[in-house]
Amino acid sequence: MTALTGVETRPAVVRRPTVLLWALTLAVLLALWFAGARMEWLAHYPDEWVLPLRDWVSEAMEWLVKEATFGLFTFKEFTRGIAWLLNVPLQACLVLLAHGLEVPLGEESSILIPPLSWLGVLGGVTWLAWRVGSRGLAILVGTCFAYLAVFGQWNSAMVTLSSILVAVPVGIVCGGLLGILGYRSHAFERAITPVLDLMQTVPVFAYLVPVLFLFGFGPVSAMIATIIYAMPPMVRMTMLALRGVSAEVLEFGRMAGCSERQMLWKVLLPSARHSLMVGVNQVIMLSLNMVIIASMIGAGGLGHDVLTSLRRLAIGDGLEAGVAITVLAISLDRLSQAVANRGATPVHLQTEQGFADRHTTLLGIAGILLGTYVLAFFIPALRSYPDQLVIDTGPLFENLVAWVNVHLYIYLDAVKSWLLINLLIPFKRLLIDAPWPGVAVVLAMAGWRIGGWRLGALVASLAIFIAVTGNWEKAMVSAYLCGISVVLAMAIGLPIGILAAGSERFHRIAQNIADTLQTLPSFVYLIPVVMLFQVGDFSAMVAITAYAVAPAIRYTDHGLRGVPGEVIEAAKMSGCRRGQLLWKVKVPLAMPEIMLGVNQTIMMALSMLVITALVGTRDLGQEVYIALTRADTGLGLVAGVCVAFLAIIADRLIGAWAARRKRELGLD
Amino acid sequence: MAPAFGKLAGRTALIAGMMAAALSTAPAHAADVPESDDPIKMTIHDWTGQALTTHIMGSVLEDMGYNVEYVQADYLAQFAGLESGDLHVAMEIWETTGKDALTASLKTGDTVDLGETGMKAIEEWWYPKYVKEECPGLPDWEALNDCAELFASPETHPKGRYLGGPVTWGGKDEERVEALGLDFEVVHAGTDAALFAEIQSAYQRRQPILAWVYTPHWAPIKFEGEWVEFPRYSKECYEDPSWGPNPDKTVDCGKPRGWIKAVGWAGGEEKWPAAYEAIRNFNITNQDMGEMIGKVDLDGMPISVVVDEWMENNRDTWQSWIPKN
């Protein structure tokens, strides 16, 4: 509670009307609650009032797929054209990395041109890491790729890598271009921001069906869904990064007589490079997040391995494939960071070097790849990693889970039952029984007090949209699951974040934990969780918490580290003890940043809803999942938009609060 | 121009000659098989039995001279692809879980029914054998209410907990519970994987569990258990309230045992008629399938080895699927 002492800095006069208003709102809520017992429509939104929005969406989709035309060609031909175009680089990567190429010679025989040797690819990336980064990076990347070979994940990993190698550049380029447009024109920025919000918050399952209809079945559709999901941060970061270029740099560019194009490519983008890389990093991470879902619609690769293993309940195999995804994510991420941080040789020095000097990195990679490729014709073990040398840890993990299941179940069960009876079930009842108009009024009030009447009107109308489309009760179940999980995630993440902010070593460990939790496919731990906690809300809660804890750690850590040194110095001089320094100075000052962490935690929790539908929750996520399995575009998109609106309500309220608090603390 | 024409003529003659050769060496095959070299795209889902069925059929088609490509696709999401012709053949659509999607898809006219595969899906409420010690009245359904407490969990107490399949599977379990007056609550697992994860975990602890189990599947092979015996399903039971123990309600009986069908893209009917014919002839028994699934999922043998072994030992069976003219 001491964390809230900052509140007292506000003059007491302002608070009294607020308290009165809140009391009034609560009274309205309670009145509606009691009225709900008589008037059924208050308690449960009547079915007859539901707007048939989802039927309209389905019909619109039908029209788009079957009839829409640009005159010369139909809409579907257009989207299929895009799919064909994207398929070309994808197939090229697949041939090179995974499948090789079968060249028919006459009727009967054909020769197989094999893919690159595993040792070559491993050597190539290690060399690249060493050249652009350090020895440490080379060891890390080398170990990561060695893992893929040693644990028998190589082929699947290369299939996954191929689609990432196409999706990520496309996402970066498209996102970058949109970002540049947004930087140039404010009108465009205003138009695109809500679209980006939706792209990030509508669950992927919701637009998978329309994507399948338009782009056909197979890896390309999976890739397009990946791009839609992974692109928004790039757009946002590009706009932010370009705006952040300092005025002096711009002035200098103008003085040097740059044309608009030169200004963009030679001045703006290079000087915004570091911030842009944050966007690139997000695109990579999010693309790898999509691997499992993409495999449901034909992407194959590691995602498919995870799914099939878990279907057989081979937890160990699933974990191995899942860790392979994490390992890919971490090495790609660190490599891209190293590229961004590399100090380039100044141009005037480059001319003095020979061709070989300037292109050592590329020549080295080409040499390694070619060398191992040729060698592999003589040594088959280089072509594909020998099966005898594959390590299989599968049985180990299965036995571990079985052991925990048999010996520790009574304790786990006791904790579970206690939490269910005393916390989860009452909270769920409360939210489901709350009258929908009452909740809308409370939200409107909160929005108005925090950010003015516009915000109030926005959140209230979003809430009413959810009711009008007939999703109120499911949305409340979603809110309950996410709410509890977020509280739990914060309770775990805050202390870890505080510890991480205090010590460099702990910081690094916490970073790695957060990275792993975010990239390890949740499906991998979902199944063991079900084994230990049974199908139901509790398992869903555990899985959501595990996934959403990462931003709670990151933002707390980041926020505490960002507290200005002078303030800490001043606090120490005035004789603060360590506890006081933390609770009375650092935490209140870092509160806006921590709240952004809460915000991100909520976003993560909501994005996990659809995944937990796989365990068997009965909420909006389940609606979206059912829509996917029935190929019902309307149902999926409407339920998906409702999830997005829940996210936007939370985001706007918390964002406005954090912004106001920052202003009050003079942190701007 | 002239030499070009000559070359073309020469090639045609060559092809014609080869066709003749093919005719003479393999009289069982129709003259124009394969009708098209375009790959037949067969879908693979995430359960072993389906992968086995598909690879067996695929091997037969390859033997007939077709190009076959296996594409991973979701069981129900695949219908979009089958209708547009992005995918061509799906080998296992279960009456029990995919009937609605199949009917809807066939109605569009873009897909065709490729007939039953010979396997029969059995699915019902299932319990492990050790439950019988505490609830000796089983497998008769009337014993369920006496043991309801045995299966209870904090969320369902004092009612028993029955773990059903994913909502999308249907199954009418809520209706069944009501019609038969069972003191049970239906909890739906989200996926097949979650369902069997919980069964396995309960089995390890020897904890009583009542859940939806189906076959052909590895679970009834690996776990010792029995299906609850409800009043036997009949069509009237689902439609006529007066049928069965409850005179006022329908669904007062067990679940239907259903076909498993293959389905294909309608365009393939003209493109690869002989292949579609062969798929219609496909026939395999629960027994054979169960054994193969056990070899893959329990003994850890690779799918390709199990398929090759079956192809080797059952040459006559699959040869008979290939159309003669």
The CATH architecture name of the domain at 477-668 in chain A reads Orthogonal Bundle
| Shape-level CATH architecture of the largest domain in chain B | 3-Layer(aba) Sandwich
Provide the gyration radius of chain B in Å: 24 Å
* Count of all domains of chain B: 2
For the record, what is the CATH homologous superfamily label of the domain at 477-668 in chain A?
A: MetI-like
Overall radius of gyration of chain A? 27 Å
Overall shape of chain A: it is globular
CATH topology of the largest domain in chain B: D-Maltodextrin-Binding Protein, domain 2
For the largest beta-sheet of chain B, the strand count, sense and barrel status come to: 5 strands, antiparallel
Number of strands of chain B: 9
The CATH topology of the domain at 477-668 in chain A is given as MetI-like fold
> Uncertain segments of chain B of ≥5 residues (pLDDT<50)?
1-31
Care to give the gist of this entry?
The complex is a heterodimer of chains A (668) and B (325). Chain A has 668 residues and is mostly helical.
Secondary structure: elements and pairs:
The complex is a heterodimer of chains A (668) and B (325).
Chain A: H1 12-38, H2 40-43, H3 53-66, H4 75-99, E1 101-105, E2 109-113, H5 118-132, H6 135-150, H7 154-184, H8 186-201, H9 204-215, H10 219-230, H11 232-243, H12 247-255, H13 260-271, H14 273-289, H15 291-296, H16 301-311, H17 315-341, H18 347-350, H19 355-358, H20 360-376, H21 380-383, H22 394-407, H23 409-433, H24 436-451, H25 453-468, H26 472-502, H27 504-519, H28 522-533, H29 537-561, H30 565-573, H31 578-612, H32 620-630, H33 633-665
Antiparallel strand pairs in A: 1-2
Helix pairs in contact in A: 1-24, 3-33, 4-7, 4-10, 5-6, 5-20, 6-17, 7-8, 7-10, 7-11, 7-14, 7-16, 8-11, 8-33, 9-10, 9-32, 9-33, 10-14, 11-14, 12-13, 14-17, 16-17, 17-22, 17-27, 17-28, 23-26, 24-25, 24-33, 25-33, 26-27, 26-29, 26-31, 27-29, 28-29, 29-31, 31-32, 31-33, 32-33
Chain B: H1 2-25, E1 40-44, H2 48-64, E2 68-72, H3 78-84, E3 89-94, H4 95-107, E4 111-128, H5 131-134, E5 160-164, H6 173-179, E6 184-188, H7 192-205, E7 211-215, H8 219-222, E8 225-227, H9 235-239, E9 258-265, H10 268-271, H11 273-281, H12 286-297, H13 303-313, H14 315-319
Parallel strand pairs in B: 1-2, 5-6
Antiparallel strand pairs in B: 3-9, 4-7, 4-8, 4-9
Helix pairs in contact in B: 2-12, 2-13
